[in-house]
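C-alpha cells incoming
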C-alpha cells in the first residue's frame, strides 16, 4: 500500500471536521507541558470543540479547496487545530484564556463563519462572550424595565392604599 493511501484517511478526517465548521483556529502549542495540554484538551472536549495535532502536510492537503485555504500560509512549526461546529467564538475564547496562562502558546489565525482572521482578528473574537452569556444579558436588559415598572406600580399602590386607610378613620 502506498504512503498516500495510508495518509488519505487522515486528510479526509481533517476535511470532514473543517467542512461545516463554524470556527477553525490554528494554534502553536510549542512549550506546553503534557499536564497543561491535558487540561486544555479536557476543557475543549467539554465545550464540544475538536482539538487535535496533525502534521502540517496533512492539514495543507485537507485545507485545499475549503474555507480554510488561507490558513495554509501559516502551516509551519508545531500546530494544532481547534474546530467547533456549533459555537463560533468558543475555540478562540478558550485558547485565549490558556494563552494568557501559558505565554509560550499562541493563536496563529483562524476561519470563523467562512471569514479568514489573522492573529489580531482571532484575539478580538476571543473577547466576545459566549452565546449563553449574551442571551443572559439580553434577557436581563429586557426584564429590567418590567421589574422597574412593577416596583413603581407597587409603590403607587402602597401610597394610595396608605392614604385611603388614613382617610377612612377620619371620615367616621
Amino acid at each position: 500500500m502506498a504512503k498516500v493511501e495510508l495518509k488519505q484517511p487522515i486528510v479526509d478526517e481533517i476535511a470532514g471536521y473543517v467542512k461545516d465548521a463554524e470556527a477553525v483556529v490554528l494554534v502553536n502549542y510549542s512549550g506546553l507541558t503534557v499536564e497543561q495540554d491535558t487540561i486544555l484538551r479536557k476543557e475543549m472536549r467539554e465545550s464540544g470543540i475538536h482539538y487535535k495535532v496533525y502534521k502540517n502536510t496533512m492539514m495543507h492537503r485537507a485545507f485545499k479547496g475549503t474555507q480554510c485555504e488561507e490558513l495554509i500560509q501559516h502551516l509551519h512549526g508545531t500546530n494544532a487545530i481547534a474546530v467547533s461546529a456549533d459555537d463560533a467564538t468558543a475555540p478562540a475564547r478558550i485558547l485565549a484564556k490558556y494563552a494568557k496562562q501559558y505565554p509560550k502558546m499562541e493563536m496563529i489565525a483562524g476561519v470563523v463563519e467562512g471569514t479568514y482572521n489573522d492573529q489580531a482578528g482571532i484575539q478580538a473574537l476571543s473577547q466576545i462572550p459566549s452565546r449563553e452569556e449574551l442571551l443572559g444579558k439580553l434577557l436581563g436588559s429586557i426584564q429590567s424595565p418590567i421589574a422597574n415598572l412593577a416596583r413603581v406600580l407597587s409603590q403607587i399602590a402602597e401610597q394610595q392604599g396608605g392614604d385611603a386607610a388614613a382617610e377612612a378613620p377620619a371620615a367616621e
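note: The helical segments are 3-19, 34-46, 56-63, 90-101, 119-126, 131-171.
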